């Protein structure tokens, strides 16, 4: 990872400082997986002394902060010391869009970015990087779970729900979960050496070779064929646009005939039928979770009208939209 900063201590051994800002209702796994990799890299064996890596936890108020699981984390430093770190990490969690980040936090991230500090958003902490306006490209790694809310709020950004984490200039956005560990391992390999990163992964029983893998989204969780995985991802991200199958095939780098054959051989269904299943799945979510009318739901799923919506539900053996939307009297 070119351009990442580091500092040397007087004895010649590199020591890298990490300033971590967990936000209210932060996701505990994102923090713990990232931090435990640093802990294991910081010292020999499992002694946990902060030698190679040093870290501080801070909040805007200076108070302890509660995670979404109820676990409380105490602060170890004030916000002033965060700007002296080589990396600034914001850990998000629940209700990030319902509760906008404080201006003081956005200003701190802007200052850090101007200093060429590496700024990282873990889980929905990436939303805060978007809010701060420091990402040089309008792309952000987002968990598939939060894709819809991200797209609705930041329509001028492209959400990457395939990668576990994404480099964006001197900034990183990460979907959270196991991606937090793999991002930490990449930093360790870059700042120190790959053997150290491999050691950390081994202790945590994480397969190091999978650090470049995709997010295990439900639609492709059990699918190993790369062409089918890429196609389904494309279906999900272009659902409203509904591109032709020939266009989809060109995007994947094969012919439409090859695409059809691969889907039928692997799944026993045409790519069009698989896309319809994805449409029905999304439509059911919208019918249950929103107040959109049937036409609006259809358009959001690339079906253009309520009649097409009904026909697609019937073909997939589902209850009609009006029955799903109906409330018990």
Report on the structure:
- This protein is of the alpha/beta class.
- The chain folds into two domains: 7-210, 3-Layer(aba) Sandwich (Rossmann fold); 217-329, Homeodomain-like (Arc Repressor Mutant, subunit A), CATH 1.10.10.
- 43% of the residues lie in helices and 13% in strands.
- The strands form three sheets. Strands 1, 2, 3, 6, 7, 10 and 11 form a seven-stranded mixed beta sheet that branches.
- Strand 4 and strand 5 (72-73) form a beta hairpin.
- Helix 1 packs across helix 7, helix 6 packs antiparallel against helix 7 (194-203) and helix 8 crosses helix 11.
- The longest helix has 19 residues, at 271-289.
- The relative contact order is 0.09.
Kindly list the characteristics that best describe this protein.
single chain; 14 helices; Arc Repressor Mutant, subunit A; Rossmann fold; alpha/beta; two-stranded antiparallel sheet; globular; disordered N terminus
* Domain module tally: 2
Average pLDDT, all residues:
89
**What is the global morphology?**
globular
Distance N to C terminus:
59 Å
Kindly provide the name of the CATH class of the largest domain. Alpha Beta
Secondary-structure element series: EEHEEEHEHEHEHEEEHHHHHHHHH
CATH superfamily name of the largest domain?
Class I glutamine amidotransferase (GATase) domain
- What structural class do you assign from the helix and strand content? alpha/beta
Q: What is the gyration radius calculated from CA atoms?
A: 22 Å
Tally of alpha and pi helices: 14
Quaternary organization: single chain
């Amino acid at each position: 990872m070119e351009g990442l900063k580091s500092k040397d201590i007087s004895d010649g051994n590199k020591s890298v400082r990490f300033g971590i800002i967990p936000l209210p209702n932060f996701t505990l796994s994102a923090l713990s997986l990232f931090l435990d990799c640093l802990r294991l890299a910081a010292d020999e064996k499992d002694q946990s002394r902060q030698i190679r890596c040093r870290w501080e936890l801070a909040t805007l108020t200076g108070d302890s902060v509660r995670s979404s699981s109820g676990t409380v984390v105490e602060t170890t430093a004030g916000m002033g010391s965060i700007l002296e770190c080589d990396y600034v990490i914001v850990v998000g969690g629940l209700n990030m869009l319902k509760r906008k980040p404080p201006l003081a936090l956005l200003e701190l991230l802007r200052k850090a970015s101007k200093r060429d500090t590496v700024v990282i958003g873990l889980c929905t902490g990436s939303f805060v990087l978007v809010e701060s306006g420091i990402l040089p490209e309008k792309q952000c790694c987002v968990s598939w779970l939060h894709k819809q809310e991200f797209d609705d709020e930041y329509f001028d950004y492209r959400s990457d729900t395939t990668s576990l984490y994404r480099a964006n200039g001197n900034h990183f956005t990460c979907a959270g979960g196991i991606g937090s560990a793999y991002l930490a391992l990449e930093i360790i390999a870059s700042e120190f050496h790959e053997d150290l990163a491999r050691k950390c992964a081994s202790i945590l029983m994480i397969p190091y070779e999978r650090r470049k893998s995709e997010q295990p989204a439900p639609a492709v969780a059990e699918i190993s064929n790369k062409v089918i995985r890429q196609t389904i991802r494309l279906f999900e991200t272009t659902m409203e646009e509904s591109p032709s199958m020939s266009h989809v095939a060109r995007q994947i780098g094969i012919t439409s005939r090859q695409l059809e054959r691969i889907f039928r051989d692997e799944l026993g269904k045409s790519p069009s039928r698989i896309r319809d299943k994805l449409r029905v799945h999304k439509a059911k979510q919208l019918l249950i979770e929103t107040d959109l009318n049937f036409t609006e739901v259809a358009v959001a799923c690339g079906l253009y009208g309520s009649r097409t919506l009904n026909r697609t539900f019937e073909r997939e053996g589902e209850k009609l939209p009006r029955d799903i939307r109906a409330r018990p009297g």
